Amino acid sequence: MSGALRGVVAMDGPSGTGKTTVARTLASRLGAGYLDTGAMYRLVTLAVLRAGIDPTDAAAVAGHAGTVELDVGTDPARPAALLAGAELAAEIRTEEVNRAVSPVSAVPEVRELLVARQREIIERVLAATGGIVVEGRDIGTVVAPDAGLKIYLTASAEVRAERRGAQDAAAGRASAPDDTRASVERRDRLDSTRAASPLRPAEDAVPVDTSELNIDQVIIALSELACRRGLLNGCAAEATR
């Protein structure tokens, strides 16, 4: 399967499903841009923590969010995460940020601010390269509801906890398996029950369970879906029946 991506692939799902690896790899394979919307929420969360603001104080979080200078890279090979010009890709993945990102991202003003930024980035990348893979938790439902292909990645809680633990170990962060699973399940619960843009699949999203698939199998499946939707140059869309 070959051909450059044209249009938007929206990729949603809970943590530990492989969204970041899948989205970056797919974007690289298809010559597209890449946007990690979760990194933007994590940057705001880190800024809130550094300012000494309680992440559960919605009013204070909302007031501070508008002052945060953040930027994210759209090159899948180098997805930078910048706060006031400083690269903080490692700092936004700490357990402290993991615990605080759900309440911060649940603040409606934060979501409104970042969704507007995300849409601007998507339009800019589409104008420059023609295609982008966007990952997050509300891409198909809120950020890019008109995306040509919407994917909802899933995996069992056990597999997702194992993946999170492996990521932490690779980054030099110690984590007990039980604590990791509890963290994953807590994030699921908070993200799926928040009032503003809860985590849920779009009605027309294609579910993909990655529990027993390796990265190459997932990429092949998604590339074939993009081809059938007519999103790859040289690939005709399947006729609808």
UniProtKB/TrEMBL annotation:
Q: Which reaction does it catalyse?
A: CMP + ATP = CDP + ADP; dCMP + ATP = dCDP + ADP
* EC number(s) per entry: 2.7.4.25
Gene Ontology molecular function terms on file: ATP binding; CMP kinase activity; dCMP kinase activity
Has UniProt tagged this entry with the keyword Lipid biosynthesis? no
Q: Which Pfam families match?
A: Cytidylate_kin (PF02224)
| EC class (word) | transferase
Q: Which UniProt keywords apply?
A: ATP-binding, Cytoplasm, Kinase, Nucleotide-binding, Transferase
Supply the name of the protein. Cytidylate kinase
Origin organism is: Amycolatopsis cihanbeyliensis
* Taxonomic classification: Bacteria, Bacillati, Actinomycetota, Actinomycetes, Pseudonocardiales
